[in-house]
Each structure stands twice: as structure tokens, then as C-alpha cells.
User: Fold this.
Amino acid sequence: MREWWLLVGLICVPLMAVYLHIPPPALSPALQKWYNSGESFNFKGSNIFYRDSLGAVGSSDVVVLLHGFPTSSYDWNKIWSALNQRFHRVVALDFLGFGFSDKPRGHRYSVFEQASVVEALLAHLGLGGQRVNLLAHDYGDTVALELLYRSDQNRTGHLTINSLCLSNGGLFPETHYPRWLQTVLKDVSLLSPVLTRLTNYMMFSRSVGQVFGPYTQPTEEEFWDMWTSLRFNDGNLVMDSVLQFLNQRAKHRDRWVGALTSTLVPLHMIYGPMDPVNPHPAFLLRYKYLVPRSTVTLLDKHISHYPQLEDPLGFLNAYYGFINSF
Assistant:
């Protein structure tokens, strides 16, 4: 019996070692094109990927796109061309620890730093003194609220925010229900390093698929693009560190929700109601109660947590309706 277990161990250990060092998948043609269309700039020793596109002639409007967790700026690919027809400049970035940006291990990731990354990028692009429109999703919503706080509350911000449009972000800890794996990883338990290494495409696609609507699921190619951008630069190994934003949301709720409820900046919320992370109607009732001056677009009942990917036309129509209203 002892020899049998020893044999199993001798077989499993090298197999596990091989598994844990599986190289990241190659970029698809679509993802490669996105990567080739971007550039990077240096933020405190880390390379930050971004795209900056010149669009509509005769317009001076700038829109800055802030993506969600655990994906990247590629989340905006379905509406990128359309936004370029409306705005003079369309800017998107991969936050530190995401997408094609650097993903340093052992780093203390924070929403505050990500807001500073956005400010540094716009300064790098010569847009520091220009009024900008922020369009955010999920994790990007919280980064946008920190930028709003800096601009409105303590006047230390380097952006002048012309408008803010949010979408399906966990703004209120009391109405936010992260996935089970996120809850485990955010507490940086002893299991975290093991779980981040064991996370594979099947686990990832299953988890992400649960936050899309039943009729708006990503294609196999789209799932692979999401997974590939996560695995780029070994991003799966820093997920537990990045997920500290969940704890930061709770700790700094008054700061960020306070900025949202007190601002005079034009606000809009685009919301997919099938979202299991920010469920309907609890989330929307809370939002309307706390932010009564904001306008809201409630998308089709089958749209979930990624509205810009699940219903790009509906998302665009909602955003254009907002941005053209003031």
C-alpha cells in the first residue's frame, strides 16, 4: 500500500510542476491587432499599456475609458469605432496588473494608485488641463470615483471631469456580491498562491460566463481573448493582490460614495439588470436613493454585468443620449 501511494506521488508531482508552468496562450489576431494599435508609458518603473485614438473632426471632446476586473481595455473593442465617430479623442488603458500592462508580484495594488495612473497617462498625453468625459465599468467605476473625489473634494486632482458615466460597478458594498473565488482571494489566505496558480481556462470561463446573460454569452474566441489578456505577464498570479480593491471599497465607502452623492458633475448609470454581482432591484434602488440627480438607463432584462459587450448598441445609445443632453 505504501509503495502504491509513493508511485502516485512520483507521477503526480512532476505532472503538477509541468501544469503550473504552462506558458500563456498566444494572442489571437484580434487581440494582437489591439495590442499593436497601442503604446505604453512608464509609471514609476512599470509599463502601462494604452490606446489613444484621434476621432471626430470638428469636436474637441475627449472620452477616457476605464475597464473592469479581471479583464482589460479590450472590453471596449465593440464600441471603439463608434466612439471615434463621436469624440475627438478616445483614450483607454490597462490598469496596472491588468491586460498588457506590467503585473508586478508582491506589489500593493490600490484604487488610489490606479487613479494616479490615469492622471499620469493624461498628463503624458497632454490632456491634463482639458475637460474629459469618464466612461467606466465595474472596477473602473471605483477608480472614477477616486478621480471624482480628488477633483471635487480635496482639490488635489489633476483632471477636470466634464461628465461621468458608470456601468455595473460595485459602488455600494451593501449591495455587492463578489464571486466565491474573489471572496477567498481578497483575504490573502494561505490558499491564495495555490489558487492563483491552479486557476485555468475552464475555471475562468465558467466564472466569467456566470456574470453574462444566458443569451449574451461570449463566444469561445472571446473567452480565450479574456483569458489570454489575464495570463499575459502572468496576471493570474497577482489576482489576489489586485482583489484588495474589494476591501478598499468597504474601508473607503464614505469617501467614494460621498463624492458620488455630492458632485455637480453630470452623472449617468447604464445598468444591465441580470447582474448577479450587483443584483436588481436592490442595487438600482440604492443608487437612485443615494444619487437622485443622476440619470439612469435600464437595459434589456437579459443584459448582465458586461453591458458594453452584451449589448453594444444599447450601451452606445444610452451613452450618446446622456452625453448629448448637456
Residues 8-15 have pLDDT under 50 and may be disordered.
